Amino acid sequence: MKICWDNLERLRYSKNTNRWYLGNSILEYMDSCEGCNESFLAYIRKDVDKRFCSVGCKNKTIPVDVSGKNNPMYGKRHTEDSKRKISANRKGKCTGNDNPSKRKEVRKKISESLKIYNSDKNWYGENNYNWKGGISFEPYCINWVKLFKDEIKERDNFECQNPYCESNNPDDLTAHHIDYNKKNCDTNNLITLCRCCNSKANAKRKYHKELYIKILNEKHTCK
């Protein structure tokens, strides 16, 4: 937890124990965060990584892509004993659909609050972290017509090919350029996605490119 005025107003220091407290929680003073090199206060708990002052600093320092072969459990299976320990550790915690943040009314409130927050920010054009120099305005290839796009969708059975699709409208389909080159309309470079997954593919491009190449290779034996 970064030390700032908002935190200091709620903190108290005990000379008897030589410790900091925030409510009933005990905090430990750390000299330096591995991410930003600033001092910070860490909760004294086993599940807290005391090397970093925040999740943001941790994600900047440690790669967050643990999918596929990057995952330490890739190709392995949990033992029955391991499963029991994980289950026991999760008991009493709000996981899955039991998490209040998963409820529709809560998600709607979060969505509305983010709309208000984002409306006050200028996330457009060069100020957006996904800005790629205006390539979205580049022209498509001459084959990029409705009939051609419909052929791609038909090839993919008119289904979003993202196995992790969570869209509420998965039938709103479009053809996605796997290598992000709009002029490359080779059928092996095109895959059917819903508009939600197509938008998500603009982030983590290397991951999505490898994912969709693998899917096409497996489903259509494309080289």
UniProtKB/TrEMBL annotation:
One Pfam family matching this protein: NUMOD3
Annotated region described as Disordered, given as residue ranges: 68-105
Cited InterPro entries: HNH_nuc, NUMOD3
Any one GO MF annotation of this record: DNA binding
Ranges where the HNH nuclease domain occurs: 147-199
Name the UniProt record assigns to this protein: HNH nuclease domain-containing protein
Source organism of this protein record: viral metagenome
